[in-house]
Every structure is written in C-alpha cells, then in structure tokens.
Specification:
Blueprint lengths: L2 H10 L21 E3 L8 E3 H8 L3 H7 L13 E2 L2 E2 L4 H12 L20 E4 L4 H6 L12 E4 L7 H7 L4 E5 L11 H15 L10 E6 L5 H11 L4 E7 L2 E10 L4 H4 L5 H8 L2 H5 L6 H5 L22
Parallel strand pairs: 5-6, 5-7, 7-8
Antiparallel strand pairs: 1-2, 3-4, 8-10, 9-10
C-alpha cells in the first residue's frame, strides 16, 4: 500500500456520517457512491468501483435493485468473487493500525456483532444519557444502571469506582462559559484524570475502553497544556457554526477512533479570540456541549450493542 493510500485508509477507517453509517467504502476507504448494508447491526458501506471490480461486473447494479441487501461480511459465505473474509481480519486490522498510525493511542480490535454487549458509562459533571440514547447506545426505559452520573467526585475513591464498574466509557467536562461553579475549571480536569485512572482496566486486559473529556473553553492556556500532557493526546476543536458565525466551540480530548479525522485543531490564538467575544458570553449557546460532541461517539458502534432508535428519531 502506497503512503498516500495508507494515510487515507487510516484516516477514514472508522469515520462515520451523522446517519450512523461509515463515511467511506469499507474496502478502499474512498468512493463517491456507496451501497449500504441493511443489516441493523452493521454500519458498512461499499463503493460501486470495489464491488464491480472485486465481486464481478454489474454487481453494484444488481445490489441497487435489491429491496434488502446485506454486505459481504454479514453473508454466511466466505467468498464473494475475489473478496474473501479472513478469519482473523479484526486482529490483523488492529495490528496494522497500531503499527502504521503513529497516533500513540491504542487501537482496540473491533467486536463481532454477536459478541457486542451494552455499553457501561461513567459520566462526570455532565450527563450524556440523552445523547447516548438518541444514538442507540442506551435503551429507553431499561437497565438504568448502565450509566452512572456523578456531579461531585471529591470523596470518591478507587474502591467506589471499581464497585460501580467495570465501565467501557468515561466522560467528563468543564462547566459551560457563564455557568456558576464553586471550583476552578482545572479542578474538573484533575478530578477527571484521577477517576479515569480508577476506571481503566488492568494493563493486560484486552477489552475496549474509551474516554472523552470536554473543555467548554474555560481552561487557561496552562491548563490546556496540562490536559494534553496528562491525557497523552492532543485535543480537537468542535464548533457550532451558524452560517459563517461560530455560536459555540469546545475542545475535546479522547481516544475514540476517528475523532481527529472528523475534527481539526483550533489554534490557541483563535481560541482566545473566540473567548474574548462578549456576545458569546452573554448569549446562550445554540447547542449544549454534550450535543455538540455526541456524533464523536458513533465509532463505538463497532464495539458495543446498538438499540434501534426508531424511525422518528434523529441523530
């Protein structure tokens, strides 16, 4: 694989659109027109070029004519034309990503659909139940213990977290701009990092474990550098844009796949300029911070059980 194709593949492999499906072809990570697998537990898409070249000429047209098509990885057949499902493809894919990406964060092997379990979430300082439910990660009205929400963690010790867990996802955030709070913004960062260490699985445990920390642009530049050092990854910036006007923005540190592919970094000077706008401090944001970052959780569909959100729900 040439270097440009390798970089494109790694950048797009687990990149999702807002509809919950992968943004690019599962084979080449490219393609303009995509065929979508209609298995509710699958999120894969395939471009016309790969299907016609590797399966057989005209295959894309025949797939388009089907009323309910399931993809090559969901079919019980090991081979479709030149496409062959490898028994250990998930492990090989993880090894390739770990070796070539250079991201510094561990890539977890994706989980087969029949092995996926409901996600277990610990959320600190901000509740994301509504966002996870709308994405299909939590089921309405059942098993409320799947999400543990804490506003004050001052007296929480390791024994508490281990007793509530194990957790698959830990989320935390600073208060929004203008929100009254009795503690400095850095307190939320340091407490999140402390609780995160308690929630992490043991080093030899292979199970996927994800985390995300959101700064609502209240951390100082020094705190920002501390967060990057403690969390061992650079942040991205997610903006709520209306026309050409930035209504709100947040910084996000996370180990969820494709976050950095979907969003880019915002320069410190630009961030300070955004903070300095008095109108932003006076006007309520058009979206609350958790709603701004919720689509970053979409790649978790490769690891955890998905509950149908119904035909009237929206991502």
């Amino acid at each position: 694989m040439c270097a440009p194709c390798k970089d494109k593949f790694l950048d797009r492999l687990l990149l999702y659109d807002d509809d919950g499906y992968q943004s690019y072809c599962s084979i080449c990570c490219s393609g303009d027109t995509l065929l979508i697998c209609e298995n509710p537990d699958c999120t894969r898409c395939y471009c016309f070029e790969c299907v016609d070249t590797l399966v057989g000429p005209g295959t894309s047209g025949r797939v388009q004519a089907m009323s309910n098509w399931v993809c090559f990885l969901c079919l019980p057949f090991p081979r479709s034309g030149l496409l062959q499902r490898r028994r250990k493809w998930r492990g090989w894919l993880k090894a390739f990503c770990d070796r070539e990406s250079g991201a510094g964060l561990e890539t977890y092997k994706t989980v087969p659909e029949w092995k996926r379990q409901p996600v277990r979430v610990l959320t600190l300082f901000g509740d994301i139940r509504d966002e996870l439910t709308s994405l299909g990660f939590l089921e309405n009205g059942s098993d409320p213990g799947r999400l543990k929400h804490l506003d004050d963690v001052t007296d929480v010790v390791r024994r508490d977290v281990e007793g509530w867990g194990p957790f698959d996802l830990v989320y935390g955030s600073t208060p929004p701009i203008g929100h009254a709070c009795a503690r400095p913004p850095a307190w939320y960062l340091l407490q999140f990092h402390r609780i995160l260490q308690y929630a992490r699985p043991r080093p030899a445990c292979p199970r996927p474990f994800f985390w995300a920390f959101v700064d609502n642009l209240v951390l100082t530049q020094e705190d920002h550098a501390t967060a990057t050092r403690f969390l061992e990854t650079d942040p991205v910036t997610i903006q709520d844009v209306c026309g050409r006007t930035v209504q709100n923005a947040v910084h996000l540190w996370s180990n969820i796949p494709a976050v950095k592919s979907r969003h880019s970094a915002l320069g410190s000077q630009e961030a300070r300029s955004l903070l300095a706008q008095d109108w932003q401090r006076m006007k309520p944001p058009t979206q609350r911070p958790a709603k701004m970052v919720k689509n970053c959780f979409l790649p978790l569909r490769e690891y955890f059980k998905y509950f149908s959100t119904g035909p009237t729900s929206s991502l």
